Automatic annotation (TrEMBL):
Chain ranges of the ABC transporter domain: 19-264
Entry protein name: Peptide ABC transporter ATP-binding protein
GO molecular function terms noted in the UniProt entry: ATP binding; ATP hydrolysis activity
Source organism: Metarhizobium album
Keyword line: ATP-binding, Nucleotide-binding, Transport
Domain of life: Bacteria
Gene Ontology, cellular component aspect: plasma membrane
GO biological process per UniProt: peptide transport; transmembrane transport
Length: 337
């Protein structure tokens, strides 16, 4: 399958990316020791212009760290991060600042992402004024325009965040992210803190904005049903790595990686017949700590299909199945045997 975005240049790209955190803790003797948490542990991902890539995986697998690193809101330990052809890896904040209008983030919690002391109009105008993209009068007009686009009355510009519901606040946060017409937006679980009743509306807004502004997204979500609805491509992450990647149809209808299969088996089906035949939780236990050193495949301790090779070799992400998706699993890497 070729997608129109296949030929486009990557807007955002991770190249052999690693992000590690050093954490210090005291042991029972009171001695300090340092542990390395490998939150992102060797990821190659290219997000092309106009594409919505969904990133899924269990809590703690490194999704937010990857999203932040792509925007250089996080340090890079190894590898590289590129944005629209520029290497961002070694850039400090002064060099990143002019690029920031083109790379925006929408956070999960709309209650903490807006400054409670600023009027909505000031919050929304800020990116335009900070980057010198508009005069005050132009900014006012752009604020009214974007409020209408995200489904709010332009008159709300004079009010403060406390006057709004969670869904309305998320509309405002999204308006702030897109008002300066960024090329790339990372949306980190943008609907999971919202009431079920407004989640679909916010998803529709994302789809509308993608068309309207030709936006490129990384959409982080633990809800696979949502991902199917919104993504052009899905990347499944496990313990700091992408273990499967492909179109939503290929990944969801023909999952190759045992981890993807287990994630999908855990999703309740709306169809009662399928729901009755759904395997009981196949994913047992917790993922290992990202501070642990694991030989071979990082999923093997939870995998029902683990083979001897999985103990000694670390499978790379390579084309599997009928060539439509990439998978990091020896069950699908014939050439490895
Ligand atoms: N600033 C930090 N210092 C130390 N460890 C961190 C830091 N930020 C994240 N981590 C650790 O890195 C790992 C990945 O965290 P991250 O927040 O990226 O996961 P996530 O997939 O977004 O999880 P969730 O679904 O819960 O949001 C976790 O083990 C986390 O505890
Ligand atoms: Mg997260």
């Amino acid at each position: 399958m070729t997608h129109p975005a296949d030929t486009a240049l990557p807007v955002s790209e991770a190249v052999a990316l690693k992000v590690q955190y050093q954490t210090r803790q005291r042991n029972w003797r009171g001695q300090l020791s340092t542990t390395t948490v490998r939150a992102v542990d060797g990821i190659d991902l290219a997000i092309r212009s106009g594409e919505a890539v969904a990133l899924v995986g269990e809590s703690g697998c490194g999704k937010s760290t990857l999203g932040r690193a792509l925007l250089r809101l996080e340090h890079v330990s190894e590898g590289a991060v590129h944005f629209a052809g520029s290497d961002l890896t070694g850039l400090g904040e002064p060099m990143l600042r002019p690029l920031r209008r083109n790379m925006q983030m929408v956070f999960q919690d709309p209650f903490s992402s807006l400054n409670p002391r600023m009027r909505i109009g000031e919050t929304l105008a800020e990116p335009l004024l900070v980057h010198g993209l508009a005069s005050k009068a132009e900014a006012r007009a752009r604020v009214a325009e974007i409020l209408e686009i995200v489904g709010l009355d332009p008159a709300v510009a004079t009010r403060h965040p406390h006057a709004f519901s969670g869904g309305q606040r998320q509309r405002i946060a999204i308006a702030r992210a897109v008002i300066a017409r960024p090329k790339f937006v990372v949306a980190d679980e943008p609907i999971s803190a919202l009431d079920i009743s407004v989640q679909a509306q916010i998803l529709d807004l994302f789809e509308d904005l993608k068309e309207r502004f030709a936006l490129t997204y990384l959409f982080i979500s633990h809800d696979l049903a949502v991902v199917r609805h919104i993504a052009d491509r899905v990347a499944v992450m496990y313990l700091g790595r992408i273990v499967e990647e492909g179109s939503p149809e290929s990944v969801f209808d023909n999952p190759l990686h045992p981890y993807t299969q287990a994630l999908l088996a855990a999703v309740p089906s709306p169809d009662p017949v399928r729901e009755r035949s759904r395997p009981a939780a196949t994913l047992q236990g917790e993922p290992p700590s990202p501070a642990a050193t694991i030989s071979g495949c990082r999923f093997r301790g939870r995998c029902a299909h683990a083979m001897p090779i999985c103990e000694t070799s670390d499978p790379a992400l390579a084309t599997g199945g009928d060539g439509k998706q990439a998978v990091a699993c020896f069950l699908h890497h014939e050439q490895s045997f």
